[in-house]
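Exercise 7.
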Amino acid sequence: MNYEKEMFIKNNPNAYASLLLINEMFHSNMSLDYISDQFNVLSNSLKASQSGMIVQKRLLQNNISQNVLEEFSGRDINGHIINADKYKGKVTIIDFWASWCIPCIEKLPVLHQLNERYRDRINILSISLDRNINSWKKAVEQHNITWDNFCDGLAGRNPLVVELNIIEIPRIVVLDKDGLLIYDSKNDDFEVDEFMETILEI
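Solution. The predicted structure, written as C-alpha cells, is:
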C-alpha cells in the first residue's frame, strides 16, 4: 500500500490528492523522516500553497514538540470535573480566554463553527483566566459556550497555563491525538479554522 502511495505522489507531484495522502501519514506509524521525504517530492507550487505550508509546519513542529497534555483538572459551569484523560486520542483545540477580553469574545464564532462542523472528530476545551467566577459563568451562558470549559481558578498556575506559558490572550493551541502541539496562534500566521480544515479535510 505504501508503495502505491509513493508512486502516486511521485507521478502526481502537483496534485492536491498527493498532499492529502501525505497528511494522512501523520495518523499512521510512518516516521517523520519518511513523511518529510514524501513531502519533498511535491512540486514547489504545491508546497508553497496554504495547505502545503500548514503540512510543512506540522512536520517541523512534530520534530520538536513534546507532549504538553499535562495532568490537569477543573470544574465546568455545572460543577462537573474535567481532566486530561478525556482529551487523549483525539485532536484537541484549547482556547485560553476571559470574559473581559474582547478579542477572545470575537474568536468564539469560529469555535462555534468548528464545534458544529467537527464535533464528532475533535475535542474543544476553553480555559478561562477570569479571576471572578461569576463573570466567567455569565459569559459562558451569554455566548452559549456548550463545549467543555472551566475557569482556571489558580491565578494562572494551572499546569496547562504554565506549560504553554500563557501570558497573553486570546491564545488558541491544537494538540494531536498524542498530545503533541501542532498549532499555536502565538506563532502561526494562519487562523485555527484554516488549520483544522487542512488537517481534517485535505
